Amino acid sequence: MNTATFYIVAPDSPQASPEGFEEYILFLIRHFVQQGARIYLNAQDKQEAEAWDDLLWQQPPDQFLPHHLIGEGPRSGTPVEIGYSKLKPSWNRQLVINLAKDTTNFAGTFTQVIDFVPCDEKAKQIARERYKIYRQSGYQLQTIDIKHP
Predict the structure, then answer these.
(1) What CATH number should be reported for the domain holding residue 99?
(2) 22, 24, 48, 92: which has the highest count of C-beta atoms within 10 A?
(3) How does DSSP classify residue 127?
(4) Which domain of life is it from (predicted)?
């Protein structure tokens, strides 16, 4: 069964700051890579995708996560592929971590979706729209409140 998990970012959580959110995303990527998942990290745009690529290259050697931008890297890919909404992910990805704050959704494309409900009211409303699309597409939905580091 396809699942979509929405992480709700509380305004008073460390993840409400850009740095705290980045750290949480890195934590999630490591967690899913350790479980053997092949991840598609969907950024807002090309600039954000390149920033995530740079950030992953800057990780300490003992925490390195093999990754590539769409169109680069080995033929079979790495555990983490980075792109943005206007690009089509590789065929061999099961899980998407959606960082885009628009109406982009991956219903029917991935078996597992990780998405976020940010603090900003406008972005929160758009996240609710994505949630409805997943529900209508038959995804099993869950929400998780982010309240801790």
Answers:
(1) 3.40.50.10110
(2) 24
(3) H
(4) Bacteria
d(CA 69, CA 67): 7
| Confidence band of 33 (pLDDT split at 50, 70, 90) | very high
Q: What is the pLDDT of residues 121-130, one digit of tens each?
A: 998 999 999 9
Phi then psi dihedrals of residue 11, to 5 deg: -60, -30
Domain residue limits at 34: 3-146
Residue 101 to residue 90: CA distance in whole angstroms: 21
Q: Model-level pTM?
A: 0.93
Q: Summarize pLDDT for 49-90 with one digit per residue, the tens.
A: 999 999 999 999 999 999 999 988 887 789 999 999 888 888
Q: What is the DSSP letter of 142?
A: E
Domain count, the chain: 1
pLDDT value of residue 129: 95
Residue 142 burial (10 A CB sphere; 0-12, 13-18, 19+) = exposed
DSSP run (H or E) holding 130: helix 121-136
